[in-house]
Each structure stands twice: as structure tokens, then as C-alpha cells.
Amino acid sequence: MLILDLEHSVRINRIQKSKHKHVKTIVAGTRVYSPPEWIVNRKYYGEKLTAWSLGILLYDLVCGDIPFDSDQAICSGQLLFITKVSCQCKDLIQACLRVCPGERIGVEQIRNHPWMNATQHDPLEQDDHERDCVTIHGDAKSNQDKISGQPP
């Protein structure tokens, strides 16, 4: 797997399969794109990792910066929108960045999300432009409990 990091360097990752069916471990990668379950348990679930990484990337594209800059911030799941973002886009990012992998959106759900299927001519909701898009999502203590919980 090839990953482009924040310094525009290409990293090569090796994916190792676990003896558990859907659980994988990763050897190296861009830390700020890592999901909470990787930070805490050094394990991840393929589709849920993809959703998390897409959420980080989408946030970066629409807000101009990554949402989390430390392991603690990643695991807290407190998502702060620093720019105005449409409600549908915000909903998709929040669904991708759920701390608990079992609550995180799947790849097929991402494909079918209204924001992904909107056209350039679809009108935004009137309140999207007037809304103060500062949102905090999650609670550090409850999120920590969710990370260590059951797989998705």
C-alpha cells in the first residue's frame, strides 16, 4: 500500500493479516490518518480503517487542515469544524470519524451518502451557509471505552 504523507513523501506500508478474520495490523504509516483502534490496540478493521482515512482526507480537503494532530486528539474523537461546511458534508465526515469502529459508516454507505451523490446544481440547504459550523463530536471518556469494546 502506498501512502502520501504531509511532507509529500511516499511511504510503503505492509499489511499483515491477523489470525482473526477481519482484524489486521499495520507496520508503518501516516499517524494522523490512523484510527483510534490502531492507536489503542494496534489493530484495525479494513473497511472501517478506509472510512476513517477518507473522513480525515475529506475534512482536510474542505477545512484546509487535518482534524486531529495527536494520538490523544484522535482517541478523544472531538471533531471541531474550523470552516463552514454543508450539513451533508459535515454528516459524512462525522459518520467516517466515529471513534467506535462498529458505529463508523461503511464504504458502501459512503458511496450512497447524499453528499457523494449531490450534483453541482443541487441547492444547499438555506441554513448551511448561515450555520456556525463549530461542532464538537464525542466525549473522551466514553470514546475510550468504545475503542476497547467489541469489533464492528
Structural class by helix and strand composition: mainly alpha
Residues in β-strands, percent:
5-15%
Number of helices: 8
Radius of gyration: 16 Å
**Oligomer kind:** single chain
Describe the structure.
The chain is mainly α and 152 residues long. The protein has helices at residues 36-41, 46-63, 71-76, 87-96, 107-112, 114-117, 126-130, 140-147; strands at residues 2-4, 10-12, 15-17, 23-26, 44-45. It has a 3-stranded antiparallel sheet with strand order 3-4-5. The longest helix has 18 residues, at 46-63.
Task: Briefly say what this structure is.
With 152 residues, this protein is mainly α.
List keywords for this structure.
single chain, two-stranded antiparallel sheet, three-stranded antiparallel sheet, mainly alpha, 5 strands, 8 helices, 152 residues
Write the layout of secondary structure elements.
Blueprint: E1 2-4, E2 10-12, E3 15-17, E4 23-26, H1 36-41, E5 44-45, H2 46-63, H3 71-76, H4 87-96, H5 107-112, H6 114-117, H7 126-130, H8 140-147
Antiparallel strand pairs: 1-2, 3-4, 4-5
Helix pairs in contact: 2-4
